[in-house]
TrEMBL record, chain A:
This is ATP-binding cassette domain-containing protein. Residues 2-240 form the ABC transporter domain. GO terms for cellular component: plasma membrane. InterPro entries: AAA+_ATPase, ABC_ATPase_HisP-typ, ABC_transporter-like_ATP-bd, ABC_transporter-like_CS, MetN_ABC_transporter-like, P-loop_NTPase. Its main location: membrane. GO terms for molecular function: ABC-type amino acid transporter activity; ATP binding; ATP hydrolysis activity. It is a peripheral membrane protein. Belongs to the ABC transporter superfamily. It is found in: Cell membrane. Keywords: Amino-acid transport, ATP-binding, Cell membrane, Membrane, Nucleotide-binding, Transport.
TrEMBL record, chain B:
Gene3D superfamilies: MetI-like. It is found in: Cell membrane. It comes from Brevibacterium rongguiense. Belongs to the binding-protein-dependent transport system permease family. GO terms for molecular function: transmembrane transporter activity. The chain crosses the membrane at residues 12-31, 51-68, 75-94, 176-196. GO terms for cellular component: ATP-binding cassette (ABC) transporter complex. Pfam families: BPD_transp_1. One of its GO terms (biological process) is amino acid transport. Its main location: membrane. Residues 9-197 form the ABC transmembrane type-1 domain. PANTHER family: L-CYSTINE TRANSPORT SYSTEM PERMEASE PROTEIN TCYL, MEMBRANE COMPONENT OF AMINO ACID ABC TRANSPORTER. Keywords: Amino-acid transport, Cell membrane, Membrane, Transmembrane, Transmembrane helix, Transport. This is ABC transporter permease subunit.
UniProtKB/TrEMBL annotation, chain C:
The chain crosses the membrane at residues 20-43, 50-74, 80-103, 143-165, 185-209. This is ABC transporter permease subunit. The keyword Disulfide bond does not apply. It comes from Brevibacterium rongguiense. Keywords: Amino-acid transport, Cell membrane, Membrane, Transmembrane, Transmembrane helix, Transport.
Length: 246, 210, 217
């Protein structure tokens, strides 16, 4: 279970998140949607402490960190180990082969042997439809391939929850579809996922929970079909209207 | 005449190599301080870098050679030259490395941290290899510049190439060819190093097109 | 404190030396920059003789240490029957160095002017000379300016080597005070401070100019 309580974050005096509460159940897929500047990405980045919140509590599995009190590096790494993150711009390591991108973190973070890590990497790359790409360098791969490699890299560390930060926004629609397909399979296998996205189809059809954010807070949350069919908050209405117009 | 110039080559190369090693070692803590995010460390490193670069090399050599006494012992000419050139190199190299590190995208730091890497692992496995690749051309160019600056060691009596050439000119009264010869050696040494570095750079960027 | 008492005593002579250092810097820039402009165009020239002559001049000026060029002018040229004063040989040597380095910066600046602007000027019916004069050279200078300012600082520091050819600049004054009073540390530290007091603000200025220019380009 992932739980965020009363989370606040400001950048240079500008509040970006104000007292956000969110609970994500094990094995569910949650979509975070809302206009740009709503604080979706910041909320996601606070969950693995890429951004340090000013106040509030983050709880993932048995690990809990209170932003106001001091916490050790060890606690920080323990919490991060529960999460895997996928970025908009993939952020693969350009100086390593695809295989090494997936293998090195396993060796360094889980202490796996090279053989064990390579075995797991090969398995994951095959699942992503990239079995023959291990020897390539990332920049020789297409955007869609790179994003699937990034997913494999994160999954290799066996996270409890996967955080996706606009994973298809930098991709052409048809290439984005490949990535969404992989994410759908992951969801079907019961992976806990939190996805910041503009893909309304994915939010409606794959996600169990829809969270609508605006101005640094959650304005509406619940069943995607219900909210998209009958939004109760006026901001949700205008946002959905604007997005579905496209 | 050729003999006079050639006898100076080992010391020219020796001073250059030793100063480059010291410079690299000195640059790393300076780099760490400028990147630490701690304002005090940043300010301290900035001041050291600006001061080292703001004073001509020959002044540093004279300060270390004539000015510094360790108890009753003085630094040897070679020691003073290597120390002075090394410290100044440290300041310039710290700036070259800083530029290279800032060319690595923020996404690389984020990806490493999101994977749960410790900051040491992040630097060793992700940032340093990428930054090194960017820094290499600047590092070689600096090395070639240092080879030429090593000639300044002649002013405190290190018997390197220019010192030998000067000696020859004074004793024989024939100065025109010997200095041309010395100049030719500097150019001959720096040209292949430059070509080699460009080759290596091309090969590395061919593998990893950024 | 003795340091300050000594400093007060040495300062007039050192400042006199500093004036010579600055004069040497100025003269080298004065002659070196026009030379650099000629060399920059020489390298771009389609005439093979002009091209290779310019390349050789630049490569030797950049490849040989300034100290070697200085000594060549002062100790070498007399062998060939050409004896120049210390100041003249130092100016000649540093002019060469300046011309060689700055030619490269200017060349970079000139090739940084977008081809489209040159074509635009030609499309307007401007002559090649006018295009050069109003479009290429002013912009090329602007692009090259930060590197040229950075070089001027290096040049100022390089004038400290002119003491080896008996130019009475700052370093030479410091050395003669040092050898007569044996207060080497004091006098060299003072000289260092004087050099730094000019080099460091000048470097900051060139960084500032670079930032300003980047904003407009």
């Amino acid at each position: 279970m992932v739980r965020v309580r009363d989370l606040s974050k400001a950048f240079g005096g500008n509040p970006v998140l104000e007292g956000v509460d969110l609970t994500v159940l094990e094995g569910t897929v949650t979509a975070l949607i809302g206009p740009s500047g709503a604080g979706k990405s910041t909320l996601l980045r606070c969950m693995n402490l890429l951004e340090r919140p000013d106040a509030g509590e983050i709880e993932i599995g048995s690990h809990r960190i209170d932003a106001r009190s001091r916490f050790s590096k060890r606690q920080l790494y323990a919490l991060r180990r529960e999460t895997g993150m996928v970025f908009q711009h993939f952020n693969l390591f350009p100086h390593m082969s695809v295989m090494r991108n997936v293998v090195l973190p396993q060796q360094r973070i889980l202490g796996r042997s090279k053989a064990e890590a390579e075995h797991r990497a090969q398995e994951l790359l095959a699942r992503m439809g990239l079995a023959d790409k291990g020897g390539q360098y990332p920049n020789k791969c297409s955007g869609g391939q790179q994003q699937r490699i990034a997913i494999a890299r994160a999954l290799a560390l066996e996270p409890r929850v996967m955080l996706f930060d606009e994973p298809t926004s930098a991709l052409d629609p048809e290439v984005g579809a490949e990535v969404l397909e992989v994410m759908k399979e992951l969801a079907a296998e019961g992976m806990t996922m939190i996805v910041v996205t503009h893909e309304m189809g994915f939010a409606r059809n794959v996600c169990e929970d829809l969270v609508v954010m605006a101005d640094g807070g959650i304005i509406e949350q619940g069943d995607p079909q219900r909210i998209m069919g009958d939004p109760s908050h006026p901001r949700t209405r205008s946002f959905l209207h604007a997005v579905l117009q496209r | 005449m050729l003999h006079a110039v050639l006898t100076g080559i080992p010391l020219t190369l020796g001073v250059t190599a030793a100063a480059l090693i010291i410079g690299t070692l000195v640059s790393l803590p300076l780099l760490a301080c400028t990147l630490s995010g701690n304002r005090l460390l940043w300010l301290g490193a900035r001041m050291v870098i600006d001061l080292l670069r703001g004073v001509p090399i020959v002044v540093w050599l004279f300060i270390f050679y004539y000015g510094v006494t360790l108890g009753s012992a003085k630094l040897s000419a070679f020691g003073a030259a290597v120390l002075g050139l090394g410290l100044v190199s440290g300041a310039y190299l710290a700036e070259i490395f800083r530029g290279a590190v800032s060319s690595v995208s923020a996404g690389q730091f984020e990806a490493g941290r999101a994977l749960g890497m410790t900051s040491r692992g992040l630097w060793a496995d992700i940032i340093a290899p990428q930054a090194w690749r960017v820094a290499l051309p600047g590092y070689t160019t600096y090395g070639i510049g240092l080879l030429k600056d090593s000639s300044i060691a002649s002013t405190i009596g290190v018997a390197e190439m220019v010192f030998q050439a000067g000696n020859f000119a004074r004793t024989t009264g024939n100065g025109i060819v010997v200095f041309l010869l010395a100049a030719a050696v500097y150019i001959l040494v720096s040209v292949p190093v430059g070509i080699l570095s460009r080759r290596v750079d091309e090969r590395m960027s061919a593998v990893v097109a950024r | 404190m003795t340091f300050f008492a000594d400093a007060q005593e040495f300062l007039p002579a050192l400042l006199g030396g500093l004036r010579v250092s600055l004069l040497l810097t100025l003269l080298s820039l004065l002659f070196g920059l026009p030379l650099a402009t000629v060399l920059a165009f020489g390298i771009r020239s389609h005439n093979p003789v002009l091209h290779w002559l310019s390349v050789a001049f630049v490569e030797v000026g950049r490849g040989a240490p300034a100290l070697v060029v200085l000594q060549f002018m002062y100790f070498g040229l007399p062998t060939a029957g050409l004896t120049l004063s210390a100041m003249a040989s130092a100016t000649l040597a540093l002019t060469w160095t300046t011309g060689a380095y700055c030619a490269e910066y200017l060349r970079g600046g000139l090739s940084g002017v977008p081809q489209g602007e040159i074509e635009g000027a030609e499309a307007l019916g401007m002559t090649w000379g006018d295009t050069l004069r109003y479009i290429v050279i002013p912009q090329g200078w602007r692009i090259a300016l930060p590197s040229l300012m950075g070089f001027a600082v290096i040049l100022f520091q390089t004038t400290s080597l002119a003491y080896t050819v008996t130019v009475p600049e700052l370093m030479s004054q410091a050395y003669s005070i040092g050898s007569s009073t044996f207060k080497y540390l004091t006098v060299f530290v003072l000289a260092g401070i004087l050099y730094a007091m000019i080099s460091i603000p000048a470097t900051w200025l060139s960084v500032l100019v670079e930032k300003r220019l980047n904003k407009h380009l």
